[in-house]
Amino acid sequence: MASSGKIALDLDPELYGDAHNDPFLQDEEKLPINELITRILVERKSFLNLTEESLHEELESKNNGESNGNEPKQVDEEIVEYTAPDISIDGQQNNDLLEKTQDEDSKESDFEKFQTQKQELANHIGLALNETSLSLDFVSLLISAVKPNVGKATMSPHLNKNIPLGSLGADRLGRNDEKDANETKKNSDKIGYGWKYQALNNVTKLFRNASTNLNEQILKERQYWSMVRTVLDNDEVLFRMRDPIDGSKAIGVKYGFGDSGSSYHDKGLAVLRKDSQNGSIEFNSVLSTNVGGHVQYKPTDKVYKYVRVKILSKIDDDFMLTGQSRFESELITQNSQHKIVNDIEKARFFLFEEDLFYHLTREAKSLINYNVSLISNKILIEINDEIIEIESVMYDENNVDDLQNTYQNTNELSSLNNKKAQSILTFTKLMLCCYYNYNLRLKQKIPTSVTKWKQTNTHPLILRPLLGHIRHQINISNMNTLLETMLSKFDPAKLKHKVEILKYSNIGKLVKIENAFQKSIEKPLSTFKIFLENSSNKTCLKIDIEITATEVFANLVINLSIIKYDNEKDLDANEGGTNLLQINFTDLNDIEECLNWTILKFLK
């Protein structure tokens, strides 16, 4: 018993035994770690200001209290105040009995009171926990309207299952006093009107933007189809294709010469790409390849080139430029007011130039034995004292002086053969057109084994006829010089002679042919007719010399035929003649020796 007259009761769970074990009193040594940490947090409240010195002070105060024995235990104990009754000395025995009875009754009543208070405390704790959980759910549901993830993480499973997130919101409300009632109502009306006005403005803005976008799209589509119609009105061939850049549907144009009979690998295809800014179309060339039976298109950057012919003549043992063809700029002038049409015409012109040089290069490879050489992008044809140079030149529209031969036409000698160079260029282009025409007519015939063979093995005759006719002119001139020199050696009193030259004697056979260029692909043929009369015996000789070539056009072939007549009358009537000689030559020196021997024998 304490000196103050109060009794300290220690609520030790072991006093009740196993039968009366209180489920609400737990041994701290057996508590789980999560419950133990919770109790420590409740007792300590906060560890923010915990220091090493404070822990030392707490331990020292605790040790001092245990050593003095003045402080009762604080854990799991209840202090019950009890006032002892006054006991007289005379009735000591009765008092002892009464005290014992009262002690037993007091213990029983205190235990019941303790159980009741403990039950009430548990109910209060449960109620507090329930209210705390409800408050937490309320706050979580309130926060979920702004931060759904945070609210969902702190919300109870039951509330999360039955109540959707964001269903509870809050706004700051002003005081609704009687004085401010009218003003609040006016403000509410203004707010409502403002919301409606804002909504109407937003809808109006959306419709206006949609209308503007639709008008822009209509203008772009109108511009696009207007330009497509312009291209179609220019008699261009349009077709559907896929844009090789993004694979979208597009319209292509055929500007090549495939339908005209061309067999060039570049078919002349381009995509009319739509500009997303203003709806106009742009001309972009593409290359087509056949992969597994499917046509695929690849974008390409075209480099425009044109064919130029130069003539270099030998002057003072050195070759000088004496002629050059001009660039036909009028063929690519801006004839149309539409840029897309001009771009197509320009691409078509340079495609023809590219096709021409391609076929010229193929022919030049087979004429190396005839003083024709191929160096890089130049074809050199050497004939006597002249060199014909055919080259592919890159087109530069900014270099007008070079296109107009300003630097070359400086004097009369440098521009002496300009017309000849231009004629050579025109001839090559016309011959390529004739090949197109021939190839087109060949495709229109009934397909047979012969026509298929011709389509596969037919090549254009451009460079070979040009070389053959130039050499033919030189051979005629050389033969005429040879005959004049040879006949001048004989005495005119003993030998009378007459020479007639019939150039291109096969023209008469080709007059009825509709294609005037057919003679260009035929072997050139010119005839020299020589009439000799021996003054002593009046006998006559008729010498026919035919200057021609082989199928290659570049080889020289001379056919010699000599007929003897007894007199001039038989010669004129072409009767009673005797064939003395009929032979072929490939060299002028050989025929000169043969004619010298024949004339000397005729005079004897």
TrEMBL record:
<dbReference type="GO" id="GO:0016592">
    <property type="term" value="C:mediator complex"/>
</dbReference>
<dbReference type="GO" id="GO:0070847">
    <property type="term" value="C:core mediator complex"/>
</dbReference>
<dbReference type="Pfam" id="PF10156">
    <property type="entry name" value="Med17"/>
</dbReference>
<dbReference type="GO" id="GO:0003712">
    <property type="term" value="F:transcription coregulator activity"/>
</dbReference>
<keyword id="KW-0805">Transcription regulation</keyword>
<protein>
    <recommendedName>
        <fullName>Mediator of RNA polymerase II transcription subunit 17</fullName>
    </recommendedName>
</protein>
<comment type="subunit">
    <text>Component of the Mediator complex.</text>
</comment>
<keyword id="KW-0010">Activator</keyword>
<keyword id="KW-0804">Transcription</keyword>
<dbReference type="GO" id="GO:0006357">
    <property type="term" value="P:regulation of transcription by RNA polymerase II"/>
</dbReference>
<comment type="similarity">
    <text>Belongs to the Mediator complex subunit 17 family.</text>
</comment>
<dbReference type="InterPro" id="IPR019313">
    <property type="entry name" value="Mediator_Med17"/>
</dbReference>
<comment type="function">
    <text>Component of the Mediator complex, a coactivator involved in the regulated transcription of nearly all RNA polymerase II-dependent genes. Mediator functions as a bridge to convey information from gene-specific regulatory proteins to the basal RNA polymerase II transcription machinery. Mediator is recruited to promoters by direct interactions with regulatory proteins and serves as a scaffold for the assembly of a functional preinitiation complex with RNA polymerase II and the general transcription factors.</text>
</comment>
<keyword id="KW-0539">Nucleus</keyword>
